[in-house]
Amino acid sequence: MEKLIYAADDEQDILDVMQEFLQNAGFAVRTFPTGDALFAAFQEQPCDLVVLDIMMPGTDGLTVCKQLRAVSNVPIVILTARESEADHMRGFLLGGDDYLIKPFSASLLVVRIKALLRRMEMLQPASPVRCFGDLQYSEADHTVICREQTVPLSMTEFSLLGCLMEHTGVAVSRDDLLNRVWGIENEDIETRVTDETVRRIRHKLKTAGSSVKITAVWGYGYKLEAEHA
After folding, report:
1. For residue range 127-142, what is the model confidence (pLDDT) as tens digits?
2. Structural domain harbouring 47
3. Does 94 lie in the same domain as 140?
């Protein structure tokens, strides 16, 4: 089944180009002139990936990103015409998975989208489920279970927790997490993006009542620990 992509931008020519290139790459595409229209459509029919411009009439793209992340783990690509590091940072802090600066190559957008979707599809573990403390982590099903309850993680959060699950009890550096979770193309992202993602995972594990903790190793990174391990 072909993947469904939603794209929102207030420039119709950009939407037309994105639609043409993505359809030629084998995707189904729906385009929207505002983030509000995209979010309304998503609530009726979720898609496989979202492309959001930051500056649009009505609700801005970053706010829509936050709204989507509150209800879904869908991969999100942020578009921005401003070469402002703050915009990129806010996009990642609000749950975005990648970004492109306008003007951008439509071919590059296709490549980045395929890479994001591949990250979800290629999570094939050596064993079906990894267990640590009261967590069951399944890469094949893209789920984390705590006490028979699903922990709702975004793709980025899931990937970061997976890195820590591979090295339980051993510290993983922030630089390593940045490279493995966000990719080498985003190696210049500030490490506080990692810190914010960890904060969100901690909150979700606590809400689920998990005994597993993500412990900060000062000046280095993070490690997983279980209270009753």
Report:
1. 567 888 899 998 777 8
2. 4-121
3. no
